[in-house]
Each structure stands twice: as structure tokens, then as C-alpha cells.
């Protein structure tokens, strides 16, 4: 791993691999906190690298210090899932395996909760990182496969890595968007038709409000004939999201459909199925919206957003008893989900289950207050008073 000022994140990250790996290489790029000391306490090698605004160069420098046969890459805001360790050890016993792609759970991500990352690979002299931002080994692996076709790339379906890097305040504090934009724009100037960078930078433009630039770049990426299924999925998915925000439902639907037919692992499509459902719901196609949400729950039975959207859709269809059951299932998984209690209260009221409805509304109010959503609590209270079903 490469780090800078990660004293807070580093202990749980290194603890997650302490009894799994044979050596730790934690390359420091100029920390001023206790990062170096913490890494050393875990027995890590801690070489120094002077930061040069290029993640690929830094990661390749860290690789020079690796002595093992296999390399696992983690960032400080990630943790290895201990339950997957036996599968990892089994996967690397195949003498023809070159790369083990790992499923990463994006904790707190507002869109897709899972991604596939090429983070476990054989220490081969021709496998190296490229690209200054979103550094990956994929380019070098593709070149190697042209010369040595016996190598295999394996996708491990179990969740292997937990990623906690989606806190908006942390991203803003680290100025990640500005750094990423500058770095990727520089790379794209030299590689103007690279579909991977078009996907990543196009998505970033959408995040920072540059919708037209984002859409233009994503379309450019789709014109390339070099994109694999994963990149094609990302290009269509981000374009669909952009058109959704611009209320261009037909275009959004077209790109969601093209995204979900890509031959990639089902968990990676979760956000696309869900967002496709949202668009269908917005045009009152509740039947097909419900199918999309049901698909998300078949893929991931713990996908809370899928339950919430499905329950709302069933309610809109007049299937109140079914909506009640889905809300109850959701709340069994996430008992502090205030909006679910509020909507359940509405469903129960329509079903004339008044005592249960009142209890659900009170629970929603209590949760809103305890979670400091005072405005939502007041709006709920005012609405209930207007209906004459709230008593102090």
C-alpha cells in the first residue's frame, strides 16, 4: 500500500491482514502524523517515496520492495474480509492464475454498492501499474496475455474488501475531486480515446456538476472499440444516470438496458437495476419498476434501498398488504430507518390498521429526532396534525 497521513485508518486496515500476509510494504509519501510509527508497530517495511502526483509510479515503486510470489493491494480506508481468506488462498494455488479480481463493498456509496478491483496478482516482472489516477495493472496484464496466453484472470465472487472512503466530508477535506480531475485530464490529453479514462473522468464531471462535459466524454468513450464489458457497463450506467437527472427518461432507459446486458458479475449491476427501477417508477411503469427492484433483492437480499423502493412501488400499485410485508422485512434488517417507518405508517393507515399506523408514525418521529433530522420530524408532525391523527 501507499499512504500519507493515515494514522486513523491504518490500524484496522493492517489488523485485517496481520495474520494473512507474509509481509507488509507500507510506502509512505510524506506523512506528518503517526502513520510511519503505526506501520512499523505492525512489522511493516516502511520505505519512503517522494510524491510526484502519479499513483502508478508510486505503486510500482512499492512493488519493488515486495519479495513474495503474490501481491495484495489495499488502501488505508479498506479492510480485508476475514471470511474470504480461505478462498483467496485456494485461488492462488492455481499455477496458471495471474490475477484474482476481488469484489469490493463500497460502504456508504450513494450509487453502486459493489465494484470489481484487480488487487490480487502474481508478482510477475511485466505486471505493473499504469495511469496517474485510478492506477491499475490491467493495461500491463493485457499486453502480457498477448505474449503468454496460458495465464488466467479469475473473478472471485465473494466480497473480499470493505471500502470506507465514501464519506463526503473526507472527500472534500482531501480535495480528492480536484486532484482526480487534474490528473485524469492530463492523461486524457495524451490518450484522447481511452475509454476507461472517459468513463472515470466523465463520471467525475457528473459528480461535480459539469453535466454537459460528462455526457460528451461518456459518449466519446462509447465510440471506442477498445472498451471491455466492465468499461462498457460503466459508460452506459453513468450516461443513464446523467439522463435521469435531466429527466430524459427514454435515453436513460436505453442506456440502463445496455448496461445490464453486459456480461459482468450480477452484484456489479445492482445500482443499474435499482436506478432503472427509479426511472420506470417516475413514468408510472410500476409493474416493470417492481421487477427491477425484485431483481436487486435476488442479487443481494440485504440491499436496503431495493426493499424501500419496492415497497413504495407496491404501495403506488395499491398492493398495500405486500408493501407492508416489504417494509417489515426492511425494518428487520435496518431497524433505525426512519423514512421506512413513516411510509409504513401511511400504508397501515390506508389498511385501516390505525393503532399500528400510529405506532409506526411515532417511531419515525422518534428516530428523526434522535438522528437530528428535526425538520423532517416537524414536517411529519404537521402532516399528521392536518389529518387529525396526531395527539401531543
UniProtKB/TrEMBL annotation:
| GO terms, molecular function | transferase activity
Coiled coil regions in record = none
Annotated TPR repeat ranges: 233-266, 270-303, 304-337, 338-371
- Report domain Glycosyltransferase 2-like positions: 1-153
Record bears the keyword Transferase: yes
Entry-linked Gene3D superfamilies: Spore Coat Polysaccharide Biosynthesis Protein SpsA, Chain A, Tetratricopeptide repeat domain
- Transferase in keyword set: yes
Keywords attached to this entry: TPR repeat, Transferase
Q: What CDD domains does the database record attribute to this sequence? A: Beta4Glucosyltransferase (cd02511)
Q: Which SUPFAM superfamilies match?
A: Nucleotide-diphospho-sugar transferases, TPR-like
Q: What is this protein called?
A: Glycosyl transferase family 2
Q: Which organism is it from?
A: Rippkaea orientalis (strain PCC 8801 / RF-1)
Q: What are the leading ranks of the lineage?
A: Bacteria, Bacillati, Cyanobacteriota, Cyanophyceae, Oscillatoriophycideae
Amino acid at each position: 500500500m501507499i499512504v500519507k497521513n493515515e494514522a486513523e485508518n491504518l490500524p484496522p486496515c493492517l489488523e485485517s491482514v496481520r495474520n494473512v500476509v507474509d509481509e507488509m510494504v507500507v510506502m509512505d509519501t510524506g506523512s506528518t502524523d503517526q502513520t510511519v510509527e503505526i506501520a512499523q508497530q505492525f512489522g511493516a517495511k516502511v520505505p519512503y517515496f517522494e510524491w510526484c502526483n502519479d499513483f502508478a509510479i508510486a505503486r510500482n515503486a512499492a512493488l519493488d520492495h515486495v519479495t513474495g510470489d503474490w501481491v495484495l493491494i489495499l488502501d488505508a480506508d479498506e479492510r480485508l474480509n476475514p471470511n474470504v481468506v480461505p478462498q483467496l488462498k485456494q485461488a492462488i494455488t492455481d499455477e496458471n492464475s495471474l490475477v484474482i479480481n476481488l469484489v469490493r463493498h463500497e460502504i456508504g456509496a450513494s450509487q453502486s454498492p459493489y465494484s470489481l478491483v484487480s488487487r490480487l496478482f502474481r508478482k510477475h516482472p511485466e505486471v505493473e501499474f499504469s495511469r496517474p489516477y485510478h492506477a491499475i495493472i490491467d493495461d500491463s496484464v493485457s499486453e502480457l496475455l498477448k505474449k503468454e496466453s496460458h495465464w488466467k484472470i479469475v473473478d472471485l465472487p465473494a466480497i473480499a474488501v470493505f471500502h470506507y472512503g465514501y464519506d463526503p466530508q473526507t472527500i472534500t477535506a482531501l480535495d480528492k475531486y480536484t486532484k482526480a480531475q487534474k490528473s485524469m485530464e492530463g492523461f486524457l490529453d495524451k490518450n484522447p480515446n481511452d475509454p476507461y479514462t472517459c468513463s472515470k473522468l466523465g463520471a467525475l464531471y457528473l459528480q461535480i456538476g459539469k453535466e454537459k462535459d460528462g455526457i460528451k466524454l461518456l459518449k466519446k468513450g462509447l465510440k471506442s472499440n477498445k472498451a471491455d464489458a466492465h468499461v462498457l457497463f460503466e459508460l452506459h450506467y453513468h450516461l443513464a444516470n446523467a439522463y435521469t437527472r435531466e429527466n430524459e427518461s427514454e435515453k436513460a432507459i436505453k442506456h440502463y438496458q445496455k448496461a445490464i446486458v453486459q456480461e459482468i458479475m450480477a452484484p456489479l449491476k445492482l445500482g443499474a437495476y435499482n436506478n432503472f427501477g427509479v426511472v420506470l417508477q417516475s413514468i408510472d411503469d410500476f409493474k416493470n419498476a417492481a421487477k427491477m427492484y425484485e431483481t436487486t433483492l435476488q442479487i443481494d437480499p440485504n440491499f436496503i434501498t431495493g426493499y424501500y423502493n419496492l415497497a413504495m412501488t407496491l404501495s403506488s400499485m395499491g398492493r398495500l398488504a405486500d408493501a407492508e410485508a416489504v417494509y417489515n422485512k426492511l425494518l428487520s434488517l435496518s431497524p433505525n430507518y426512519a423514512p421506512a417507518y413513516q411510509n409504513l405508517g401511511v400504508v397501515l393507515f390506508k389498511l385501516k390498521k390505525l393503532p399500528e399506523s400510529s405506532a409506526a408514525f411515532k417511531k419515525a418521529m422518534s428516530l428523526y429526532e434522535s438522528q437530528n433530522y428535526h425538520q423532517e420530524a416537524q414536517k411529519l408532525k404537521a402532516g399528521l396534525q392536518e389529518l387529525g391523527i396526531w395527539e401531543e
